[in-house]
Amino acid sequence: MRFLKKCAVLSLPLVLVACGTIPTQPIDNTERPEVIDIAPEPVIVPEPSVVAPQEKPVDRAARAPSAVVSLFKRAEQQEQNGDTKAAASSLERAIRIAPRFPESYYRLGELRYQEGAFNQAASLAQKALRLGAEGTIRRLAEDLINKARAY
Fold this sequence. Notes:
This protein is mainly α. The chain contains six helices and no strands. The longest helix has 17 residues, at 2-18.
């Protein structure tokens, strides 16, 4: 039995080679035309312009989850109590939960503006606009950008 297995394993490559196909078309021995090497013209590459990366448009159905709404309420209370660091932390958490919800960015931008971080406030308001802020939030974000750039 062992002998038969060895014979089968050793004869397998021969069987596979026998099953191979032989090309049916004759080999073309004609000479090919001589290739003339022409120096290519230098390619002038224009300098790349700096373009801000485009983000994917937001679905119209993007709504704030209930956790984000509760974080907005908490941040508002914290801000009224004078604890702006905790309010900022709550808004940053809302952004982590729903990163494509524009109102979170606007609210954090408004808070940063009140703290005096005008560049960061303008940046956050622009992010809200890029994410597709509509209606009142869009108008407020545009106003925040204009106020922040005035400083």
